[in-house]
Amino acid sequence: LPGATKALTYLQSKRIPFILLTNGGGKSEQERVADLQDKLGVPLSTSNFIQSHTPFADMTHHHDQTVLVAGGDRDKCQRVAEGYGFKSVVTPGDILTAYPDIWPFAKVFRDYYSSFAKPLPHPIATDITHDLTSRLKIDAIFVYNDPRDWGLDASIILDTLLSHAGYIGTLSSKNGDTSLPNNGYLQDSPPPLYYSNPDLWWASSYHASRLGQGGFAAAFSGLWAAATNGAALTNTQTFGKPHQGTYEFAERILMRYRKGLVGQVGLNAPLRRVFMVGDNPESDIKGANRYKSGSGVRWSSVLVKTGVWREGTAPSEASEYTVDGVWDAV
């Protein structure tokens, strides 16, 4: 992050409110902030730091339900979800460890999954005619971070969406019923599917950008279309930049942080303008350009020539400003 240390130090010294908004994730906010502090040498706080899945913490209506969490290394995302207040969190690895035949191509990974898998809260159903009250029911599906095992995660998510009311192991009798909307698919009380990050590409240490969570989402959409003969995937919501919901959440956090920083002055001088600085035209720039603030705040986009940005390539979304780096933006 060229210039980041200088830029953040300046903002802090001048008491200029800012937030760090990333489409990254897979760790707790505390762990991510600690990593950034070590790399940048700047004191940071979780109070103004937002990852792609941070808005999930506000979904209190799911906290007492059983949710499926996919993505990330080992059980890190499961523990993040539990830290957000979700009381019953299941991962594809937990299901595979309990029922190895559910994805027979994962034999080579079984030792990996069994090293951190947790017992399921209930067994899966083997037939829809069984009493389902004591069977595993998934009430919501969350993709917290880039899936490491696309085959397993996609298979478990597909099973869940094709099931009766989220009971894994069942198959909805409404699927394929042409007398119903969407040919019967997703008409049997399915769980919602939440993605935390739409990025197709992300900048890694490799010289070319790598597929991100958006790649998995695109692949799963194709799988869903093939499995359902083109039925719509209607129960999906995507967070992360550039989506409206993430910017709404970010604006609330920025306002809260600003009031804590400037005190009563912040109550009398409303936030008027935000500069969104980022390297990804498809997320950072598009999000700032298209965000509609409910508080009348104007968001201006600033593209920096680092990270995903490539010399000689026309950005897919035009920015209000273009600069060489983060320090130039500040």
TrEMBL record:
Domain of life: Eukaryota
Classification via SUPFAM superfamilies: HAD-like
InterPro entries registered for this protein in UniProt: CDP-alcohol_PTase-I (IPR050324), HAD-like_sf (IPR036412), HAD-SF_hydro_IIA (IPR006357), HAD-SF_hydro_IIA_CECR5 (IPR006353), HAD_sf (IPR023214)
GO cellular component term of the entry, any: mitochondrion
Gene3D superfamilies attached to this UniProt entry: HAD superfamily/HAD-like
NCBIfam families xref list: CECR5 (TIGR01456), HAD-SF-IIA (TIGR01460)
Entry protein name: HAD-superfamily hydrolase
Organism: Zymoseptoria tritici (strain CBS 115943 / IPO323)
